[in-house]
């Protein structure tokens, strides 16, 4: 029979029912499966500076004499599991780190030892360190976890992770890298959102200078999940300022934590050989004397700390378990997706070709979906992000085509033809004022351009009569005006081609691992894109040549309509000018503006009908310009349609799914298949690690769901109820416990509410009392204690 110290905690008997214990056990099972490597588990971690009394705190909680020399346990975390059972049992095992190989995990998993006496613990810890590969001759550090399971009568239901003591400075035994390693490890544990931090602070030193508080504040800025523990209060001089400061700290008045503070007096050097019972008696006597007796009993002593920690842990588990299940499910989905990307093991050429066939089929489906605008696949992501948008290839192409058409309309002409107003501002032919800041093209007035055309007419005259012109002069002017088209077209084709390359790369990387993706892009995708670029350029040049190099041809009625519109605009301008001259008025918008009592209609008609253009060539030049502008618009619209349909759509978009197709894979020679799909050692190791992770997570999910089903909680249930809503439910006097209108509809689930209330007793006591909870709602457990004001 093992000799071991035990302690009784009567307060726990009313606190932890069977469901409470099952919750704690579920988390322990998840941790033993290695879930903590992949998801954040609810846990208590003990942190403190070296010589802060951290080991003595663990000893007081567990009843086990932990080694007090820091150099015995500073290289790894120790998980302490306490359970109340009828028989005494102490077991020690190692939980391998996720970065261990499969063989190492199996080897470390075999480390399972039973203790016959607590005095053997230091030797067993040394043995565990040796199994982990840690020796005193090295400064190695292990991410493995030493698991110590202790059960017996009187033990509390509690799980605590003990972390190495924080090192202030290097010395002969501890290097600068050790300082950084320990701090890094503790920071990583503290950063987990479901971790409750037990920050151990020694009263022998100014708490403002203790590293643990600094790290706790970094990880938990609002102090929502930190409980401070003050040790060695007996070292403070009675009545001193330092004693008052630590009492104020214990009252949560200085460094404020939502979970508050607790004070322990551990054994000093003179009491090092005394029993735990003697230790507890000495502690109780100390807190009943001097200034410390002013503190509430719930804030001092190990007897109050044990149930307090159990309540904190159980409440944390109750609140986090449903969300934890969802996180595990999400991790499983991500793991399966990654394994799907890696594909099956492929050691032979047949396996490699089969793998590429699957990739090509998935690739074609993805490309066709992107081309058709069916963006249901998770690959396409969020369209509001840039990464999600570039994957929607049809949307990208549409946007680029629209931008191309707009750019051609606004900036496709070599020179902008404008009318000159009296104030020298420029008005385009559509009647709007031209923004010279955004348009850097050369501008020319209609009058100046007509003069240029007249000179060109003189240089190209054939056998035409005066006032007539050679139709080919329209081609010469059109070629000059359409000079920017080639640059704009090729810029657009390059933009579409580039977006296709980005999309194809994203699709390939989505479907397979990085090594295969790079091989596919280098050997298959890039040559395909180069060929597409060549064909795009050739087709673009062909369409440009058809638009610009042959003589002007069009049978589009828009050409006639455009000429008529231009002539109507010119006629309106001419009539307005003649009316202004005839009536000698600046504004002729209304008849009242003319101020004419007698008007000879024949004179007005003669003035409007008179042609002041004596130079027939100049009149012909005006006609030439009108025809050129009309033909330019028709040709520009035709080119935009041809480029987007015959070039972008026909040459690129419609052929994009042929970049990688099954028939192509079947025709690949053996060397190319192996070059693309052969598996690297890194890929094999990655698949092995992912397979282990998936097995771990699936096992953890099964354990979690079984626990939730056993407790009867509905899917997605969370015990994080708002304070006001909980009080409202409890005070609904017209309902009994089984009928109360609350998300928890089954009576046994009230235990979760009990735990939630117990951790918030102080802030709720007044509200609970004011609610006047009916007697039928109060049954054995914390509710009765709360109502009684205990």
Helical content stands at 40-55%
What CATH architecture of the largest domain do you see?
A: 3-Layer(aba) Sandwich
The CATH H-level homologous superfamily of the largest domain: P-loop containing nucleotide triphosphate hydrolases
| Shape assignment | elongated
Oligomer: single chain
Number of strands: 12
CATH class of the largest domain: Alpha Beta
Low-confidence parts, pLDDT < 50 over ≥5 residues? 1-17, 422-427, 430-434, 713-752, 761-790
Task: Report the radius of gyration as a whole number of Å.
Answer: 42 Å
For the record, the count of structural domains works out to 3
**Helix/strand class:** alpha/beta
Q: Helix segment count?
A: 27
Short structural summary:
One of its GO terms (molecular function) is GTPase activity. This protein has 790 residues and is of the alpha/beta class.
């Amino acid at each position: 029979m093992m000799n071991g110290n035990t302690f009784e905690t009567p307060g726990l008997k009313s606190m932890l029912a069977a469901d409470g214990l099952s919750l704690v056990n579920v988390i322990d099972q998840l941790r033993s499966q290695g879930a903590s490597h992949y998801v954040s588990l609810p846990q208590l971690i003990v942190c403190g500076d070296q010589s802060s009394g951290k080991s003595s705190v663990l000893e007081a909680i567990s009843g086990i004499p932990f080694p007090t020399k820091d150099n015995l346990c500073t290289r790894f975390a120790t998980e302490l599991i306490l359970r109340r059972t009828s028989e005494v049992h102490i077991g020690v095992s190692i939980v391998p780190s996720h970065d261990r190989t499969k063989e190492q995990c199996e080897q470390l998993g075999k480390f399972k030892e039973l203790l016959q006496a607590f005095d053997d613990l230091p030797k067993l810890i040394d043995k565990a360190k040796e199994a982990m590969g840690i020796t005193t001759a090295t400064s190695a550090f292990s991410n493995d976890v030493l698991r110590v399971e202790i059960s017996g009568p009187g033990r509390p239901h509690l799980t605590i992770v003990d972390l190495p003591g924080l090192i202030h400075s290097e010395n002969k035994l501890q290097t600068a890298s050790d300082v950084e390693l320990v701090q890094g490890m503790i920071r990583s544990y503290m950063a987990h959102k479901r971790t409750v931090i037990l920050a151990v602070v020694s009263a022998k030193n100014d708490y403002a200078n203790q590293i643990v508080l600094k790290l706790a504040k970094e990880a938990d800025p609002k102090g929502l999940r930190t409980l401070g523990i003050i040790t060695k209060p007996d070292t403070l001089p009675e009545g001193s300022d330092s004693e008052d400061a630590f009492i104020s700290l214990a009252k949560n008045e200085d460094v404020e934590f939502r979970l508050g503070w607790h004070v322990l007096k551990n054994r000093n050097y003179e009491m090092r050989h005394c029993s735990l019972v003697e230790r507890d008696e000495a502690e109780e006597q100390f807190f009943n004397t001097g200034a410390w007796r002013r503190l509430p009993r719930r804030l001092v002593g190990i007897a109050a700390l044990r149930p307090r920690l159990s309540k904190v842990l159980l409440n944390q588990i109750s609140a986090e378990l449903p969300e934890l299940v969802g996180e595990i499910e999400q991790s499983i989905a991500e793991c399966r997706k990654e394994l799907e990307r890696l594909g099956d093991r492929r050691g032979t050429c047949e396996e490699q070709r089969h793998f590429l066939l699957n990739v090509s089929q998935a690739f074609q489906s993805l490309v066709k979906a992107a081309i058709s605008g069916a963006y249901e696949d998770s690959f396409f992501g969020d369209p509001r992000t840039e990464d999600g948008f570039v994957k929607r290839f049809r949307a990208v192409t549409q946007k680029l085509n629209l931008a191309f058409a707009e750019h051609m309309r606004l900036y496709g002409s070599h020179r902008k033809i404008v009318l000159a107003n009296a104030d020298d501002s420029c008005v385009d032919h559509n009647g709007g004022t031209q923004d010279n800041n955004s348009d850097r093209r050369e501008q020319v007035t209609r009058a100046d351009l007509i003069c240029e055309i007249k000179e060109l007419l003189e240089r190209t005259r054939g056998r035409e009569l005066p006032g007539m012109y050679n139709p080919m002069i329209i081609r010469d002017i059109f070629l000059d005006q359409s000079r920017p088209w080639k640059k704009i077209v090729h810029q657009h084709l390059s933009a579409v081609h580039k977006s296709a390359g980005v999309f194809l790369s994203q699709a390939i990387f989505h479907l397979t691992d990085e090594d295969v993706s790079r091989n596919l892009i280098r050997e298959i995708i890039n040559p395909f894109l180069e060929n597409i670029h060549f064909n795009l350029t050739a087709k673009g040049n062909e369409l440009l040549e058809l638009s610009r190099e042959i003589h002007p041809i069009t049978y589009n009625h828009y050409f006639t309509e455009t000429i008529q519109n231009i002539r109507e605009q010119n006629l309106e301008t001419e009539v307005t000018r003649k009316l202004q001259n005839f009536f000698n008025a600046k504004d002729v918008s209304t008849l009242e503006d003319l101020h004419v009592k007698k008007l000879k209609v024949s004179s007005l008609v003669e003035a409007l009908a008179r042609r002041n253009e004596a130079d027939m060539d100049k009149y012909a030049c005006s006609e030439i310009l009108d025809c050129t502008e009309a033909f330019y618009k028709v040709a520009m619209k035709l080119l935009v349609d041809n480029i987007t349909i015959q070039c972008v759509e026909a040459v690129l978009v419609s052929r994009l799914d042929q970049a990688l197709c099954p028939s192509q894979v079947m025709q690949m020679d053996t060397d190319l298949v192996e070059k693309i799909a052969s598996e690297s050692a890194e890929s094999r190791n990655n698949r092995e690690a992912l397979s282990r992770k998936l097995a771990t997570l699936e096992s953890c999910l099964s354990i979690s769901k079984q626990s939730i089903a056993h407790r009867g909680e509905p899917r997605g249930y969370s015990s994080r109820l708002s304070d006001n809503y909980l009080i409202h439910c409890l005070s609904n006097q017209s309902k009994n416990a089984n009928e109360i209108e609350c998300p928890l509809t089954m009576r046994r689930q009230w235990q979760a509410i009990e735990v939630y209330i117990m951790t918030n007793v102080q802030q709720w006591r007044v509200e609970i009392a004011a609610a006047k909870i009916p007697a039928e709602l109060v049954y054995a457990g914390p509710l009765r204690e709360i109502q009684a004001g205990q």
